[in-house]
Specification:
single chain, about 375 residues, alpha/beta, Spore Coat Polysaccharide Biosynthesis Protein SpsA, Chain A, four-stranded mixed sheet, three-stranded mixed sheet, about 35% helix, disordered N terminus, binds 2-acetamido-2-deoxy-beta-D-glucopyranose, Core-2/I-branching beta-1,6-N-acetylglucosaminyltransferase family protein
Length: about 375
């Protein structure tokens, strides 16, 4: 038997090497001639990779230049199911207003005016990361959720956003979820905001490609293979999200973990990445690009090109200024290259161009009285 085997193994190699070489050449030739250079699609799966075929069968309309990893397939399958699943429509749909603040809310009185008379159509959640807020409005009493310290740009910001979403999801009436800060104010009356957010089929999440140092320059290779540079997006953290997307965020573990460990300040080489500006814009760009607006309903003025956006004080708050904020029907995204390209997104709502903004930031607390006056005495906003 030993002899037979040895005989077999010593005799066999030359033939098998020739056969193998022949097969390899054949495959290479077929590959070269069957792959159109202009569209390197995953079609090549059809004859040598059953894994690639599985990927293509699952996502027939998507283009993947590589095989998906196991966690990636698991994640995409869950997201795909959730996207096909229509959330239960309750008879009393509400908008969840989620406030991220260190402590007391300087514009609580203004928000009170905003909510007054609309009981049953909203719920409020407050994540106070530093100290227990003192409330001046009964709508805010007892609305704090458990919170953890949050420092600027840290991943704790994303954790707090998820905590707010999870708490707000507990109420099945909440159909749309808005994230606001202590320096955000409403620039529209409640009914307008309510219809705008509820009778829509998208989430208002800003997402754009910034090739500059504060965009793609923050990408860290450890996020590969699941997060590729070509998919890396940037956007404001102040989102609004439909219920379906809020559930998808809570279900996500793969991308959440990738950003948690590889997109944070002070990474290797002194590089900074801020998950609150990249996780949702990248995640939704990859998993449901048609389901997001790509702009945010919260106005902010970055035109001064500084580290922080322009902040409005009492003297800046006039009827004409607020009116102007409510009139924009396209939203700018400024890239961080030396040229600072401004990309404009038209604000489409149910197929036609509409005003972009429902809220605005940032405002100094001294703007409160003037904002109250305008809000109360102006019906046209
Ligand atoms: C959206 O547009 C369609 C077609 O123009 C219209 O029938 C429908 O009522 C609109 N929906 C809302 C909520 O305005
Ligand atoms: C949302 O509605 C618009 C207009 O009715 C439609 O064109 C678009 O495909 C819808 N998007 C989603 C994600 O359902
Ligand atoms: C948002 O941008 C993506 C491309 O990144 C595009 O596919 C999608 O249609 C855009 N969303 C809307 C509502 O236009
Ligand atoms: C509305 O305007 C009137 C007249 O200028 C003023 O007395 C009142 O205080 C204003 N309301 C608020 C809430 O500022």
């Amino acid at each position: 038997m030993m002899i037979g085997l040895r005989k077999y193994t010593t005799k066999r190699p030359p033939t098998s090497i020739i056969t193998l070489a022949f097969v390899v050449c054949f495959v290479i030739i077929i590959y070269i001639f069957s792959t159109p250079t202009s569209t390197p699609r995953s079609d090549k799966c059809s004859f040598y990779s059953s894994e690639g075929c599985r990927t293509r069968d699952l996502f027939p309309n998507a283009y993947f230049s590589r095989e998906l990893t196991d966690p990636e397939i698991e994640s995409r399958v869950v997201v795909k199911e959730l996207l096909n699943f229509v959330p239960i429509q309750t008879t009393t749909p509400k908008v969840a207003f989620m406030f991220m603040t260190p402590g007391s809310l300087p514009f609580e009185k203004l928000w009170h005016l905003f909510f007054q008379g609309h009981e049953g159509k909203f719920s409020i959640y407050v994540h106070a990361s530093k100290e227990k807020p003192r409330h001046v409005s009964r709508y805010f009493l007892g609305r704090e959720i458990h919170s953890e310290p949050v420092s600027w740009g840290s991943f704790a910001m994303v954790e707090a956003e998820r905590r707010l979403l999870a708490n707000a999801l507990l109420d099945p009436d909440n159909q749309h979820f808005v994230l606001l800060s202590d320096s955000c104010v409403p620039i529209r009356h409640f009914e307008f905001v309510y219809s705008y957010l509820l009778y829509t089929n998208v989430s208002y999440i800003e997402s754009f490609l910034d090739p500059g140092p504060h965009g793609n320059g923050r990408f860290i290779e450890h996020m590969l293979p699941e997060v590729e540079l070509k998919d890396f997006r940037k956007g404001s953290q102040w989102f609004s999200m439909k219920r379906q997307h809020a559930v998808i965020v809570i279900a996500d573990n793969l991308y959440y973990t990738k950003f948690k460990y590889h997109c944070r300040p002070n990474m290797e080489g002194g590089r900074n990445c801020y998950s609150d500006e990249h996780y949702f814009p990248t995640f939704f760009h990859m998993l449901d690009p048609g389901g997001i607006s790509n702009w945010s309903v919260t106005y902010v003025d970055w035109s001064e090109g500084k580290w922080h956006p322009r902040t409005f004080g009492a003297r800046d708050v006039t009827y004409n200024v607020v009116k102007a904020l409510t009139s924009f029907d396209q939203s700018p995204h400024i890239t961080s290259e030396p040229k600072r390209t401004v990309l404009m997104t038209p604000c489409m709502w149910n197929g036609s161009k509409q005003p972009c903004y429902l809220f605005a930031r940032k405002f100094y607390p001294d703007a409160l009285e003037r904002l109250m006056h305008l809000f109360y005495n102006t019906t046209s906003i």
